[in-house]
Design brief:
- This protein is α+β, with helices and mostly antiparallel strands and about 325 residues long.
- The chain is built from ten helices and twelve strands.
- The longest helix is centred in the C-terminal third of the chain and has 23 residues.
- The protein is about 40% helix and about 25% strand.
- The strands form two sheets. Strands 1, 2, 3, 4, 5, 6, 7 and 8 form an eight-stranded mixed beta sheet that branches. A four-stranded antiparallel beta sheet has the order 10-11-9-12.
- The chain binds (3R)-3-hydroxy-3-methyl-5-(phosphonooxy)pentanoic acid (PMV).
- The site of (3R)-3-hydroxy-3-methyl-5-(phosphonooxy)pentanoic acid has 17 residues, from helix 4 and helix 5.
Length: about 325
Amino acid sequence: MPAYTASAPGKIILFGEHAVVYGQPAIAVPLSQVRARAVVTANIPTGQTGGERLASPPTGLSAVIVDAPDISLRTTLADLPAQHPLSRAVLLVFEALHVVKPPSCTVRIHSTIPLASGLGSGAAVSVAVIRALSAFLGHPLPLEQVSALAFEVEVIHHGTPSGIDNSVVTFNKPVFYQQGQPIEILKLPAAFHILVADSGQSSPTAVVVGDVRRGWQADPSGYEAQFTTIGDLSRQARQLIESGSPDSLGPLMFRNHALLSQLDVSSPQLDSLVEAARISGALGAKLSGGGRGGAMIALVQEQDAARVAAALQEAGAAHIIQTTVGRAGKR
Ligand code: PMV
């Protein structure tokens, strides 16, 4: 019995998180060192091999098993709340493909992307599930539709998502993203090196996005001004990246971090990791993703990577990933 597998990378936001929710541009790149994987197999009656064995064949949503050992979840779709991100992803695929009688199958999910840490785990899981399940059903969906369905699931994760996470994860390319505009894939004439450090604090994006929204409602013009400044940083960063000068991005990253701190989406732990990166010789550093915890990123010269990584570890980073933006994308 064939297994239909799809995987999707994590992501980091280089510039523009939060401001992107309010129409400003942002830049994100895939992080392929961490991935979500979904495998869909048909359930088969006892006595046969392959797939999941079931004594009596259930019907309807009970026929679909959702198995996510990473979060200790194993249940049928009938027993999973419709607003659970995994049911939402599966049900959106059934709806898109007009499936009225779901086939008896198991959707198994495994992810190495840390949860609630700004690395896009929610979007990657959704994209992997949508791709594997639509292939299993005989109609692999085009990437635009995969991204659009994953956006629907992002509403559960982020409240008011910008769409950047589902876009970068689906297309698996560095993107310049602005709501309402076609996604632009960035040209990367020169590679650059990023360290991604986990602050060790998990921070659900929806909570932080909700707090920023309340701040914006209380002081719309003050917040809009900050968002516009952040959007300008994304535009300048794009120019530097596309003109082959990524090593000049550092000051823009420090500035973006300071602006995010003013929006109250940093944390003492993130601030001290950014400071440790600066002192140990990183070209630039900032929080990445929803903030208040989760990931920070540091731009480094290749020869300085080990020293900056050691300083981040010393400052309490839980887990550090080194990634090369540009070269890996061309593989
Ligand atoms: O925390 P993450 O990895 O889900 O990134 C969120 C990025 C935000 O700009 C804060 C929200 C959004 O939907 O763009």
